[in-house]
C-alpha cells in the first residue's frame, strides 16, 4: 500500500480555470488567439543575437559561463544606471539589480515586502502575472483607478506595503496614466511612506506620442542632497518587449536599501541571472541592437493596432466601447451592458474559434465580468480582422440568449 502524499501548499487551491483555458488556447488548431500577450517573433534580430552570443562565450567566458554576482554583471548595472540617469535622477551601480525577466522583480518585491495578509494598493485592473507572483504570500488588495476623476492617491496608498502601477500601456488596459496622476502618485508615496512599484515593460512601445516621464523621474525632483537616488519608487524594466523575451533579462532601479533587500531575496530564488544572457543584453544595449530593433517593432505593432481597431469599429460598436491605445500591446473593450458576463462569453467565443482574455482574471477580487483584453501584436492583420469578426458573432449569439 502506498501512503498518502503530503498535500500541496494551500495557495495552489486558489485555482483559476479561466487562466488555464486561455493558456491552453495556443495549441487549438484554427483558433484565432487574441488572448495572449506575446511579442511577434519575426521582430527578433536573430543573426545579430547569434553573433553576440558567440562573442559572449568566446570573448567573455568568465562573465558568460561562470556564476555572475547575485546582483548582476557590474558592467550591465553601470550601463543601466547610465541609461536611466537624468540630472535630477542620480544613479549608481548600487541602484541597479539585474533580474531574470521583469517578472522576477515582481516576485522578489513580494518576497521582500509581504508578510501574509499585507496590503497591496494596485492600479486596477492589474497584471495577472503580478497577482500570480504575490498569490503565495496571501496579500490583501486595495484597487485604485488613476484615470478616474475622484482618484485620491493618498487614500489609495496609505497603509499599503507598496503601491503597484503600470503607468505605460497597462496590461491589461493599454492605457497611459497621465502626467498629473503620475505626479500625484509620487507625492502620495512620499507623504504616506509607501513604496511604489513602477512596472514598465511597455515603456519603449510609444507608437504615436512622446513618452511621458516615469514615476521615478518625477520623484527624483523631490530628492534632497546629491547622493544616489533614495526615493520610494521601485522601477522595473525588461528587454522582453523591446528586444526578445527569451534572454530573460530585466532590472530593478531603486534606493540602495531596496536593491540590497531584493538581492537577498534573489539569492534564495535563482542565485543569479544567466551570465550569458546578461553579456548578450549588455552588448545589445551598448552596441545598438536594441535601438535598431525598435523602429521595426513599432511600425509592425502600430499597423496591427490599426487593423484590430478598424475591425472593431466595423463589427463591435453595438456592444463594446474602447479607447485606441497610443502604444503597448492591448486594447481593452468594455461592454456597454453592465450586466455582461465575459467569463460566460468566453465559452461562446471558443466555440466560434476566437480566444480573448476576460476581465475577471485581472481583477484582484476576481469580480469584474464586464470587459475583455484583446492583444494585437501576435497575429497578422487578416487574422486580427477574422478574430474580431468571430468575437462579434459570439457576442451577438450570447446577447440573443439573454
Ligand atoms: C505588466 C507586466 N509586467 C511584467 C511582465 C514580465 O515580463 P518579463 O518577465 O518577460 O520581463 C509583463 C509581461 O507580459 C507584463 O505585462
Structural features, described:
This protein folds into 2 domains: 12-37 and 291-401, Aspartate Aminotransferase, domain 1, CATH 3.90.1150.10; 66-287, Aspartate Aminotransferase, domain 2. It has helices spanning 17-24, 46-59, 61-65, 74-84, 101-113, 128-134, 153-157, 179-192, 215-220, 256-267, 275-286, 289-315, 342-352, 381-401; strands spanning 32-33, 96-99, 119-123, 140-144, 162-165, 195-199, 233-238, 250-253, 320-321, 330-335, 354-355, 357-358, 371-375. It is globular and about 65 Å long. The chain has 14 helices and 13 strands. The mean pLDDT is 95. It is of the alpha/beta class and 402 residues long.
Mean residue pLDDT? 95
Largest sheet: 7 strands, mixed
Radius of gyration: 22 Å
| CATH architecture verdict of the largest domain | 3-Layer(aba) Sandwich
Low-confidence stretches: none
Strand order of the largest sheet: 2-8-7-6-5-3-4
The CATH fourth-level homologous superfamily of the largest domain: Type I PLP-dependent aspartate aminotransferase-like (Major domain)
Keywords: Aminotransferase, Pyridoxal phosphate, Transferase
Domain Aminotransferase class I/classII large: 32-390
Cofactor: pyridoxal 5'-phosphate
GO molecular function, one term: pyridoxal phosphate binding
What is shown here, in short?
With 402 residues, the protein is of the alpha/beta class. It is built from 14 helices and 13 strands. 41% of the residues lie in helices and 13% in strands.
Amino acid at each position: 500500500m502506498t501512503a498518502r502524499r503530503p498535500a500541496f501548499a494551500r495557495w495552489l487551491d486558489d485555482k483559476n480555470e479561466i487562466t488555464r483555458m486561455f493558456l491552453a488556447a495556443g495549441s487549438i488548431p484554427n483558433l484565432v488567439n487574441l488572448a495572449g500577450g506575446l511579442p511577434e517573433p519575426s521582430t527578433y534580430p536573430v543573426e545579430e543575437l547569434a553573433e553576440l552570443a558567440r562573442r559572449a562565450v568566446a570573448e567573455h567566458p568568465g562573465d558568460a559561463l561562470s556564476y555572475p554576482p547575485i546582483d548582476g554583471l557590474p558592467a550591465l548595472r553601470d550601463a543601466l544606471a547610465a541609461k536611466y540617469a537624468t540630472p535630477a535622477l542620480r544613479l549608481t551601480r548600487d541602484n541597479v539589480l539585474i533580474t531574470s525577466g521583469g517578472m522576477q522583480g515582481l516576485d522578489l518585491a513580494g518576497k521582500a515586502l509581504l508578510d501574509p495578509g499585507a496590503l497591496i494598493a494596485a492600479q486596477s485592473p492589474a497584471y495577472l502575472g503580478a497577482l500570480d507572483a504575490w498569490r503565495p504570500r496571501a496579500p490583501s488588495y486595495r484597487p485604485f483607478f488613476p484615470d478616474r476623476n475622484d482618484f485620491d492617491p493618498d487614500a489609495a496608498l496609505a497603509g499599503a506595503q507598496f503601491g503597484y502601477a503600470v503607468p505605460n500601456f497597462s496590461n491589461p488596459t493599454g492605457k497611459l496614466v497621465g502626467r498629473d496622476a503620475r505626479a500625484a502618485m509620487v507625492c502620495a508615496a512620499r507623504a504616506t511612506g509607501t513604496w511604489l512599484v513602477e512596472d514598465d515593460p511597455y515603456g519603449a512601445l510609444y507608437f504615436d506620442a512622446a513618452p511621458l516621464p516615469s514615476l521615478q523621474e518625477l520623484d527624483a525632483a523631490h530628492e534632497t542632497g546629491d547622493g544616489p537616488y533614495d526615493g520610494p519608487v521601485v522601477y522595473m524594466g525588461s528587454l522582453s518587449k523591446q528586444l526578445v523575451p527569451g534572454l530573460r533579462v530585466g532590472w530593478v532601479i531603486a534606493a540602495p536599501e531596496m536593491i540590497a533587500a531584493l538581492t537577498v531575496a534573489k539569492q534564495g530564488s535563482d542565485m543569479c541571472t544567466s551570465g550569458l544572457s546578461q553579456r548578450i543584453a549588455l552588448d545589445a544595449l551598448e552596441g545598438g541592437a536594441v535601438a535598431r530593433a525598435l523602429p521595426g517593432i513599432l511600425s509592425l505593432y502600430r499597423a496591427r493596432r490599426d487593423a484590430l481597431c478598424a475591425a472593431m469599429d466595423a463589427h463591435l460598436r453595438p456592444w463594446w466601447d474602447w479607447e485606441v491605445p497610443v502604444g503597448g500591446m492591448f486594447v481593452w473593450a468594455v461592454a456597454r451592458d453592465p450586466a455582461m458576463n465575459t467569463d460566460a462569453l468566453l465559452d461562446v467565443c471558443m466555440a466560434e474559434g476566437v480566444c480573448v482574455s476576460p476581465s475577471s482574471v485581472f481583477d484582484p477580487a476576481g469580480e469584474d465580468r464586464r470587459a475583455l483584453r484583446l492583444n494585437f501584436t501576435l497575429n497578422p492583420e487578416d487574422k486580427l480582422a477574422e478574430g474580431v469578426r468571430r468575437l462579434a458573432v459570439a457576442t451577438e449569439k450570447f446577447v440573443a440568449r439573454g
